[in-house]
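re: ur question from earlier - yeah i can do the single chain one, its not a big deal. heres the input i used so u can compare w yours
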Amino acid sequence: MTATRVLVLNSGSSSLKYQLLDMRDTSRLATGLVERIGERTSRLKHTALTTGETRETAGPVADHAAALKAVAEELGRDGLGLDSPELAAIGHRVVHGGSSFTAPEIVDDAVLAEIERLVPLAPLHNPANLTGIRTARSLRPDLPQVAVFDTAFHATMPESAARYAIDASIADEYRIRRYGFHGTSHAYVSRETAKLLGRAPEDVNVIVLHLGNGASASAVCGGRCVDTSMGLTPLEGLVMGTRSGDVDPAVIFHLTRVGGMSTDEIDTLLNKKSGLIGLCGDNDMREIRSRVDEGDEQARLAFDIYIHRLKKYIGAYYAVLGRVDAIAFTAGVGENAAAVREAAVAGLEGLGLAVDAGLNAARGDGARIVSPEGARVAVAVVPTDEELEIATQTYALVSASHDLT
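and the output i got, formated as tokens:
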């Protein structure tokens, strides 16, 4: 029997998301979420896609080890347990790979140690990712565990795009450079956009706009990332749900000197109390658009600032690429907010960008083009699938290095 299944784990600080996929046809066998880990009100929601059955359980889940054991039990009830000989590997989302990891890695002690060393670059994310890996290794020490890094896709950026213009020795000492994030989404969406155009990825230049509560843009030239909007951390770049995106660094000094704010307070301000929620009190684009339609000027300004920043990055990445074949909108806002897509390209007809009002307004689940027929640049809506991308990278690596029969 050939092992063809991959379990994808995304471990957050108090949650564990998972999907089990069969890589023969990339079908999903099960999906679920454990949330509020460490609290008395923990909850596990599990769906067996083979039967369509959804089960929910509530009660204390002490830690990630207990959460993964509960997940294993639920999978076992559907005949999909962690002890199945059909399970080829477990793929783990790891947010920050620094400069060390530019591709997925089979986890060993050295890889774990390096991910741990990178914790200062992602103090909210890498520790949780490490916990998930260690827990899975303890349950199945014989099974390949693969770390797939959010930053890896952006490792192809040239130094001119990746370097900040600060003292080079200080930058090197503290590993300060632009790493980028949402890499699995940008990799997947750029490839799917090329497929939608009926062309090979290496022949296509794409601007990918991953617009969710977190948001990032990338310039992808022939399948390789050459620039991206997020930097050392996910704070840089586009206006997001609660993050400011680009801001003059001197704002921090000003708030310290004049406002008497601590660095922790400023960190919280820029990451959790800025962006759309800071501008208008809402970080849900559906609510913001509803308020705009009702004449709310605060919501209108927040929307306009969001779109203005988006347009700046579209123009910048058009210049970086020189030739653009497509712009792909993805993630929750990108896939569902027709008004955002329309506003983002409005006035950019000179660059070959436009949307067809009917196509753009129509709902759809799959990848689709929403620009007018014959447009110089295709404007596309391409649903992202980060779990499939993690599973694909995991299975490819394990297939090349292990006998799966």
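DSSP finds 15 helices and 14 strands in the chain. not sure if urs matches, ping me
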